[in-house]
Amino acid sequence: MAPAGTSSPADPTATGVVLVGFMGSGKSHVGTLLARRLGLPFVDADALVEADAGPIATIFEERGESGFREVERRVVLGALADLADRPAVLSLGGGAVSHTDVRAALRAAPFVVWLDAPVEVLWRRVTRAARRGRRVRPLAADEATFAALYERRLPWYEEVATAVFRGAGERSPEEAAGWVADTLRGRR
Ligand code: S3P
User: Fold this and answer.
1) Phi and psi, residue 54, nearest 5°
2) 137 C-alpha vs ligand 1 centroid, how far in Å?
3) Could you tell me the pLDDT band of residue 2, with boundaries at 50, 70 and 90?
4) According to the model, what pLDDT value does residue 5 have?
5) Distance between CA 141 and CA 64 in Å, rounded?
6) What's the gap in Å between 127 CA and the centre of ligand 1?
7) How would DSSP label each residue in 148-162?
8) Hey, whose CA ends up nearest to atom 9 of ligand 1?
9) In angstroms, how far is CA 162 from the centroid of its own chain?
10) I want to staple 17 with a disulfide (CB 3.0 to 4.6 A). Which of 111, 117, 129, 174 is the partner?
11) DSSP state at residue 93
12) In angstroms, what is the C-alpha Rg of the chain?
């Protein structure tokens, strides 16, 4: 993993920041708070996918996971390219790192923060959100499949991240955003 912070000459407010991590890691909430701290707009790739092709659950139902991935790949590559002209905090859906060319684009981005937590914590968080009707996640149907998917994706997050915050879901979103902002500015 490439080091972030003091060793990097780049300025996160000039280049933007990308948040990656598995479902339930709090990317959208932390991203919103981080954007506010950095004075940048917040962009949620899942919201861009939905604006492009309709609700994620419906895309999965009608086109399957591969149909969803096609839309996701196109939208995420576009959003990453846009960061050059319009710096933002960009949060990616948990599976965006499964695309080889998305990972290549992420490796070229100066600030890619991986929000991580033990998979049991992530599972608890997504099932709680589902019970409250907050979010439909087609790939969070059962715990064993969820955990296997998490294991499969770990090397991809590792490959693209310039910094990792491991307390996602256990520490508050405010703490996470503060940690990320300080790390990016080289204060930690
Ligand atoms: C997915 C994660 C979701 C969403 C879609 C697929 C995944 O985003 O993109 O349901 O493959 O992990 P979050 O990570 O924001 O839940």
Assistant:
1) 95, 180
2) 6
3) very low
4) 44
5) 15
6) 13
7) HHHHHHHHHHHHH-S
8) 93
9) 13
10) 111
11) P
12) 16
DSSP-assigned letter for residue 117: -
Ligand 1 lining (C-beta closer than 6 Å): 23, 27, 46, 56, 93-95, 137-139
CA distance 156 to 187: 27
Q: How far is the CA of 181 from the centre of ligand 1 (A)?
A: 24
Probe residue for ligand 1, chosen from 42, 91, 139 as the CB with the greatest number of ligand atoms within 8 Å: 139
Q: Is 9 a residue whose pLDDT tops 80?
A: no
**Environment class of residue 139 by beta-carbon count within 10 Å: exposed (0-12), middle (13-18) or buried (19+)?**
middle
Q: List the residue whose alpha carbon is closest to atom 16 of ligand 1.
A: 23
- Whose tokens are 């937590």? That residue is 117
pTM equals 0.93
Nearest by Cα to 33 from 17, 47, 9, 56: 17
Q: How far is the CA of 9 from the centre of ligand 1 (A)?
A: 32
Percentage of the chain lying above the pLDDT 70 cut = 94
Residue type at 85 in one-letter notation = D
For a ligand 1 pocket test, name from 30, 46, 68 the mutation site with the most ligand atoms within 8 angstroms of its C-beta: 46
Three-class DSSP category at 171: strand
Does pLDDT of 138 surpass 90?
A: no
Structure tokens at 118: 């033990």
Q: How many residues does the chain have?
A: 188
